[in-house]
Amino acid sequence: MAPTIYVMYGSATGNSQHIGTSLHASLQLSTPCVELNKWKDTKLASDAGEDGDGAKLFVVCSTTGNGDSPENAGRFIRFVKRKKNHEEGVKPFSKLQYAVLALGDTNYSEFCAAGRLIDKSLANCGGSRLMPIAKADEAVGLEEVVEAWIKEVTTSLACSEASCDNDSPISPEKTLSPPAHDPAVCDGIRIVKAVNPNYTDRVVPEDEIGTLVMTSSSNSLSSLNLPPPPPSDLALLSTSLKSANDSWTHTSSDSATNYTANKPFSSKITKARYLSGQVLEKLSLDAASVSKLTLEQKMEKLKGHGRRVLELEVTLPDDFSLEYSPGDSIGIIVSQSDASVSELIQRCGYGDEYTGNDGVKRSTRSSLAKLDVTRALKKRHLVGIADSATNTEERNCLRFLAGKKGSATFESFIAKHSVNLLDLLRLFPSVKPSLTLLLSLFTTVPPRYYSVTSSPLYHPHRVKFAFTVVDYEAVEGSGRRLGLATGMMEASVLGMLVGGEAAAATLEIFPKHSKEFRLPASSRFPLVLIGPGTGVAPFMGFVEHRKLARQERVKTTADSCAGMWRGGFELESGDIGVGSDDTTDFCSSEKAGPIHLFFGCRNEDDWIYRAEMEEMKAQGELTGLHVAFSRKEEGKKVYVQHRMKENSDQLVDLILKQDAYVFICGDGTSMGKDVMACLGDIIGEEKVELLKEKKKIVLDIWAG
Ligand SMILES: Cc1cc2nc3c(=O)[nH]c(=O)nc-3n(C[C@H](O)[C@H](O)[C@H](O)COP(=O)(O)O)c2cc1C
C-alpha cells in the first residue's frame, strides 16, 4: 500500500500554518492538515510505526522566542526528542519518510532551531529523510526557499506516483484572461510605476507567482473556529516560565494558568504615565476636551508626536488567580477598531452576517474585528487577493507584486511602507475580496505581550508594564499610523494622562510566564542586566523585586526578633543566636549579590526610568549603572556593548568568578547578536555557549 501523506505545521504568527495549509490543499490530501501538537488525532503513529503501512510527513515549522518552538508544536517536539529515542533505541517512526521546511530569521542566533530539532529528532525516531531540511530566512524573504521546497515536495510525490499513474495530482494551474486596456490608473499602479520605472502591465504567469496560491476552497479556517493563535507579534516579548522556587514571591504557577488568551481577565487601567516623550506639552489638551473625544479622535490627536514610552498599571483579580513573577509578560487581547471594520465592510460590500463552514451564522463585524488585517501584507496575501481585482490592470499589478519579478518592488512599496489590507483596498479600488477569502487568508489578531516592570511584592492586585507607542509613517498619502495595540492603549488612557480620569478603559489580559527569564532563587548571585530601550522593562521588576523581597525578609526577621513567630510561640533572642543588631544578616543568611545594569538609549530625553535607576543606584540596590547614549554627541554612537567593553574586567570577575546570571533583553534585529558577540570577546565564545546551555546567560529578544 502507498504510504499515507500528512502535512503538519508549527506556527506562531501564521506563516508556517499558511504554507502548510496551502501545500495540503494543493496536494488534495484526505488526511487533515493539523498543527504538530495534534498529530495524535491523526493515524500518523500507527501508519509510521513498525506495524504500519508507512507514512510520508511534510512538516513546516517556524522558530520563535529565542530559539523556541511555537506553542502548537511544543508537545510534538517533546515527544520526538525524548531521551528514550536516543538511549533505548525506541523507534516510533520507523516507517516514516519525512521532509522539514524550517522558517526562521538569521537576525536571531538560533536560526531555525525548532525545524532543525524536528528534523534531527525524527531521524532519531527511525524516520528517513525524503530530502534535506530546507531553511527559509525571513530576513531575506521566505519565498524563494519555500517555493523551491514546495516544488521539490510536489515533484518527489509526483515521481513516486508516476510509476503507477502518470497524472500528477498536484498542479494548481490557473489561466488568466489577457488584460483589457483601462485608461484609469489607480494610485497603487502609479506608486508601482514610480518605484519601478520598468514596470509594464502584462499578465503575470502562474509560475512567476509561485505555488502558494491560496484559494477559498483550501480554507480550513473560514468559520473563524481557529485554534487560538499562538502568541507572537512584532512587539512581542517572548518569555516562558520556570518555577522560581522563590519563597519570597507570592507566585504559584498552577493558579496562574486560570487566565489564558482564550479566557482573559477583564482588567482596569488604574495608572498611566509617559516614561519618555513630550506629547502632553505639545497637545495642550484639558480633561474636559478629552472627555468629549471618541477613541478614534484621540488616536488622531496623538499621531505624529515622536517617540514615546508609556507605562500602565492595571488591576489583577482580587482572589490571586492571576499571579506573576518578575520576567513574566502580560498578554493583551487586541481587536480591530470599529472604524477599520466599518471601512472594510463598506469597501467590500459585506452583509451583516455570514454562514461559516460549520453552518453557523456569525456576525461579520465581530469576525472581522478579530482578523489580523492591519499588519503589513505578505506576498501570500497578495497572491490570494490579486484575483479578486475586477480591473485587469490592477490584477496584473498585484500579481506582479506577488511574483518573483516584483520582489524588489514589493519590498520598497508594500514591505517598506507596511501596506495593510485597508491601504491596499484604497490603492486598488477594484479589489473586493470575498469574506470567505479574507477569513481564510488572515489569521486572528495575535495577543501582544509586554514585560512586567513591577514586582508582585509591589502590590498584590496590580501589575505594571511598559511599551513604546508605535507611531509611523505609512504608505504615501495615508499619513501617520498608530500601532493597533499600543495606539489603542495610549488613546484609552489620554483622559488619565491629562489628569481628568481616575480610571480608564478595561484591557483583556492574561499572564505569559517565562521559563528562563527569571531571577535566580537565591539573591546571593550577582546579576548582569543588559537592556537597551524598553528592553530594560523586566529589569525594573527584577531590581524592585530583590529590594522588596529583602525588605520583607527584614520585616519577618524583625518580627521574630521581637519575640513573635508566625507559628504563634514565643522566641527568646538567645534561641536564634543573634542580637537585634544582626537582624539583617540573619534574615538574609546569604548576602545579596551585586547588580549591574547596562542600559542604552538615544539621548537623555529618551532615558526611561531615569529617576528610578538613579534612586536604585543611590540606595545601593544597583551596584553599577552603565548608560550608553547613541545620539548624545554628534558622530559618536555609544551602545551598551561599548559600556560592557569598558567594564570588561569587572564582567569577567562577575560572570566567571562570582557566578553571575546574565540577562539580555531587547530588540532582536542586531542588539542580541552584537551583545552576544561582545560577551564572547570578553569571556570567550566557548564560555558564552556553556553558560547559555546552563541558562546562566539568558536572552529575551523580540523582533523590532
Ligand atoms: C518574536 C519572534 C521571535 C523569533 N525568534 C526566532 C528565532 O529564535 N530563530 C529564528 O530562526 N527565527 C525567529 N523568528 C522568526 C520567525 O521564525 C519567522 O518570522 C517565521 O517566518 C515565522 O513563522 P510563523 O508565522 O509560522 O511562526 C522570530 C520571530 C518573532 C516574531
From TrEMBL:
GO terms for cellular component: cytosol. Residues 5-154 form the Flavodoxin-like domain. Keywords: Amino-acid biosynthesis, FAD, Flavoprotein, FMN, Methionine biosynthesis, NADP, Oxidoreductase, S-adenosyl-L-methionine. Its cofactor is FAD; FMN. The keyword S-adenosyl-L-methionine applies. The keyword Disulfide bond does not apply. GO terms for molecular function: [methionine synthase] reductase (NADPH) activity; flavin adenine dinucleotide binding; FMN binding. InterPro entries: CysJ-like_FAD-binding, FAD-bd_FR_type, Flavdoxin-like, Flavodoxin/NO_synth, Flavoprot_Pyr_Nucl_cyt_Rdtase, Flavoprotein-like_sf, FNR_nucleotide-bd, NADPH_Cyt_P450_Rdtase_alpha. GO terms for biological process: homocysteine metabolic process; methionine biosynthetic process. It is an enzyme of class 1 (oxidoreductase). Its EC number is 1.16.1.8. Pfam families: FAD_binding_1 (PF00667), Flavodoxin_1 (PF00258), NAD_binding_1 (PF00175). Residues 272-520 form the FAD-binding FR-type domain. This is Methionine synthase reductase. It comes from Triparma columacea. The lineage of its organism: Eukaryota, Sar, Stramenopiles, Ochrophyta, Bolidophyceae.
